[in-house]
Write a structure and sequence with these properties.
Layout: H1 2-7, H2 10-27, E1 28-29, E2 34-35, E3 38-39, H3 44-47, H4 52-55, E4 63-64, H5 69-86, H6 89-105, E5 118-120, E6 123-125, H7 130-147, H8 150-166, E7 168-169, E8 174-175
Antiparallel strand pairs: 1-2, 3-4, 5-6, 7-8
Helix pairs in contact: 5-6, 5-7, 6-7, 7-8
Length: 179
C-alpha cells in the first residue's frame, strides 16, 4: 500500500488489493465479524510458492480459528487505510465495522472499559494487554478520520484514559504490558 502511495504504480495497487482480498476470503469469519489468528505454516511452504492461478488445484493450509483483539485492531486500521487509498468501499466498511465491533464486543465485562486479548465464540477472554488497548484505540481514531462518528473518539479516549489509570506504574512512570 505504501509502495503504491509513493510511486502511484498500478502494480502496487494490485498487490495491495490482492492482500486485502486474500484476508477477506481466507481469514475473515463473518459470523463473528473477526479476522482469524493465522494460517498454518504446515504445507504453506509448498502452497505459497505456487502462482495464484495454480493454487486452486491444491488444498490451502488450515486456518487457526483463534481471534485476537490486537491483531484484529491492526487489521481494522489496515483495511480502513486500504479502503481510503485504493477507493475500496468494501475494505473501508470492513475496517470500520471491525473497529466498532471490537469496541462493543471486546470488553471483558459489562462495566469493564478495557478489552481482553482473545475473542472466542463466547466473547472476550483475558488477559488485558496494553497493545490490544492501544491498537483498538488507534483503529477507532482511524475509523473516525475516515468516516466520522464522535462515538469512536469517545470510545478511544475512554480506553486510553482507563489504560492510563490502570496500566501505568506511578512509581516507575512507565506502562505495564498486562493486567
Amino acid at each position: 500500500l505504501s509502495a503504491f502511495q509513493l510511486t502511484a504504480e498500478p502494480r502496487w495497487a494490485s498487490v495491495a488489493s490482492g492482500i486485502v482480498e486474500f484476508l477477506r476470503k481466507s481469514m475473515f469469519e463473518p459470523r463473528r465479524h473477526v479476522f482469524l489468528g493465522s494460517q498454518s505454516a504446515v504445507g504453506g511452504d509448498v502452497y505459497y510458492v505456487l502462482e495464484p492461478s495454480y493454487r486452486s488445484a491444491s488444498a490451502a493450509p488450515s486456518v487457526d480459528r483463534a481471534a485476537f483483539v490486537g491483531t484484529n485492531a491492526q487489521t481494522a486500521s489496515a483495511f480502513i487505510h486500504a479502503g481510503c487509498v485504493l477507493a475500496d468501499d468494501a475494505a473501508l466498511e470492513s475496517g470500520v465495522g471491525l473497529a466498532d465491533a471490537l469496541a462493543r464486543r471486546g470488553r471483558l465485562g459489562q462495566d469493564e472499559v478495557l478489552l481482553g486479548h482473545g475473542l472466542d465464540g463466547t466473547g472476550p477472554s483475558g488477559p488485558i494487554l496494553l497493545s490490544s488497548q492501544v491498537y483498538t484505540a488507534r483503529a477507532l481514531v482511524d475509523a473516525y478520520e475516515a468516516v466520522g462518528g464522535q462515538q469512536r473518539l469517545t470510545a478511544s479516549a475512554q480506553i486510553l484514559d482507563e489504560v492510563h489509570n490502570r496500566l501505568r506504574d506511578a512509581v516507575r512512570q512507565v506502562y505495564t504490558d498486562t493486567i
